[in-house]
Design goal:
CATH topology: TIM Barrel
Bound molecules: (3S,4R)-3-hydroxy-2-oxopiperidin-4-yl beta-D-xylopyranoside
Low-confidence stretches: 1-21
Number of strands: 10
Mean pLDDT: 94
Number of helices: 14
Structural class: alpha/beta
Strand content: 5-15%
Radius of gyration: 20 Å
CATH architecture: Alpha-Beta Barrel
Distance between the termini: 48 Å
Helix content: 40-55%
CATH class: Alpha Beta
Shape: globular
Oligomer: single chain
Strand order of the largest sheet: 1-2-3-5-6-7-9-10
Number of domains: 1
């Protein structure tokens, strides 16, 4: 079908998926969230050095930011234990001058270990953990809001005792790598908020339900043993094609909060793989999912932080994930279609999800 300008504009108006307004003209999610006791922000990384319009969007919308990749050991210490801090220095500098509270993420994660780490002895792996956590956090002490110290401790399908995620840290130290990382982190910057981050818990499938009790037990153990743990982070890569039960998840968050930790939503976005190709339909479904989820969980006062895993489809991590394109094909969708997983589109135009998030944040004080 060939669209002339009039029919094109009419089609846009009908879908309401596109608006010419830029993000600055729509509710400012950062300041709106602040009025409701919530720090709102996004992940970003080195693209902000070259992409001026995205940098402006991040600056205007975010009170908090997470570094997407650059603090991960396979990025910061690519070829060995010696770090190259050039990028992270610039990211911290950017956030400090933009007055965005910055978090480093996934310092210790059993996924994606660099090759060099896998060839070390157990004793050397333990020393690498101390160095990576201690040196990195120490370098930026006083300039960071906090750290995702340990990422994704559990993955029961790996069939390790206790349901832990397999990888070099677990192999070298068993689950003791977790309190160890937090102790080193606390010593390196006593003011920083230290976070244990986990995936899947918002899913009501077998995986999500198997991770929840294990995480609850781990948080209780860490707190009872006096480890400095300020918050538990939940990724919330929402997957509407899998079973979910927001109320059950909120109940679980209440149990976690009762252990005297804050709750951060750390990687918020919506996987649209199971949705129809039609953009208007997809945008509506994504927005609805965002709104229902957030309306339910933002009723919990200890939910203090909401971070999107990027603010735009332009930097959606789904685009690079091979499993994502495969899943779309398996669902009979067009594997070349554009992702609609984030709050603004590839042109940084706010989508329905932007307003849906704003409504959910506004509803928070009603509870
Ligand atoms: C992802 C990044 O977004 C990608 O750029 C990278 O290639 C792989 O990691 N859960 C996490 C994040 O904890 O660290 C992941 O980030 C997304 C899933």
């Amino acid at each position: 079908m060939i669209l002339n300008r009039r029919t094109f504009l009419a089609a846009l108006a009908a879908t309401a998926a596109y608006r010419p307004a830029d993000a600055a003209a729509t509710p400012n999610l950062g300041s709106l969230a602040e009025q409701h006791g919530l720090l709102f922000g996004s992940a970003f990384d080195r693209e902000i050095f070259t992409d001026a319009s995205y940098r402006a969007l991040i600056k205007s919308s975010c009170r908090i930011g997470s570094v997407e990749n650059s603090f991960k050991i396979d990025w910061l210490r690519r070829n060995g234990i010696t770090a190259d801090f050039r990028i992270t220095d610039r990211l911290v500098q950017f956030a400090n001058s933009a007055k965005i509270a910055l978090r480093g993420t996934a310092l210790v994660w059993n996924d994606w270990p660099p090759t060099w780490l896998k060839s070390l002895s157990a004793r050397e792996v333990a020393a690498a953990l101390d160095r990576h956590v201690g040196e990195t956090i120490g370098r930026y002490a006083g300039r960071m809001q906090g750290w995702g110290v340990v990422n994704e401790p559990f993955y029961p399908p790996h069939r390790q005792t206790g349901g832990y995620r397999k990888g070099p840290w677990l192999e070298a130290m068993g689950p003791s790598y977790i309190p160890r990382a937090f102790k080193v982190a606390a010593a390196a910057d006593p003011q920083a908020k230290l976070v244990l981050n986990e995936a899947f818990c918002e899913q009501d499938d077998e995986l999500g339900r198997s991770v929840r009790p294990r995480l609850l037990k781990l948080v209780a153990e860490l707190k009872h043993s006096g480890v400095k743990l300020d918050a538990v982070g939940f990724q919330a890569h929402l997957k509407p094609h899998l079973p979910y039960n927001d109320q059950a998840f909120a109940t679980f968050l209440g149990q976690i909060a009762a252990l005297d930790v804050d709750i951060y939503i750390t990687e918020f976005d919506v996987d649209d793989e199971g949705m129809p190709d039609d953009i208007a339909k997809r945008d509506r479904l994504v927005a609805d999912r965002c709104e229902k989820f957030l309306r339910t969980i933002l009723t919990i006062p200890r939910v203090k932080v909401l971070i999107c895993w990027h603010l735009s489809d332009r930097y959606s991590w789904y685009k690079d994930a091979d499993w994502y394109a495969r899943a779309i094909s398996e669902n009979g969708g067009d594997p070349t279609r554009k992702v609609r997983t984030h709050l603004t589109d590839g042109e940084l135009r706010p989508k329905l999800a932007w307003d849906a998030v704003a409504r959910a944040i506004e509803a928070r004080s009603e509870h």
